[in-house]
Write a structure and sequence with these properties.
single chain; 101 residues; mainly beta; Jelly Rolls; 2 domains; four-stranded antiparallel beta sheet; 7 strands; 0% helix; globular; disordered C terminus
């Protein structure tokens, strides 16, 4: 299983060191190359705050992992509020299986 990883700036420690994260603002990013294990890089537009990041136009996230499974906890906004989605990514297919709880 992958390590627990936080994307908000208050606890983030997995971003590629060469990618300059711009806290408390909406900014555009380009994927960094040469990811080490358990590192994350962003592409597209993201709004990054201390507790969370919000995907905007063309947002993509790339994670280099060495594990049987990776668990990503994500949310999306709807008219009813926040709906959690739990993604399980398996190395054999790289296709997400979304589990709604």
């Amino acid at each position: 299983m992958s390590n627990e990883t936080y994307l908000g700036t208050s606890r983030a420690d997995a971003y590629v060191p060469t990618q300059q994260i711009k806290p408390n603002q909406t900014a555009s990013y380009t994927f960094a190359s040469g990811l080490d294990t358990e590192e994350i890089t962003l592409a597209g537009t993201w709004q990054i705050s201390p507790e969370r990041i919000i995907a905007k136009t063309g947002a993509q996230l790339r994670l280099n992992f060495l594990a049987q499974q990776v668990y990503l906890v994500m949310s999306n906004e709807s008219q009813d509020g926040i709906l959690p989605s739990y993604g399980v990514f398996r190395r054999s297919t790289f296709a997400p299986k979304i589990l709604d709880r």
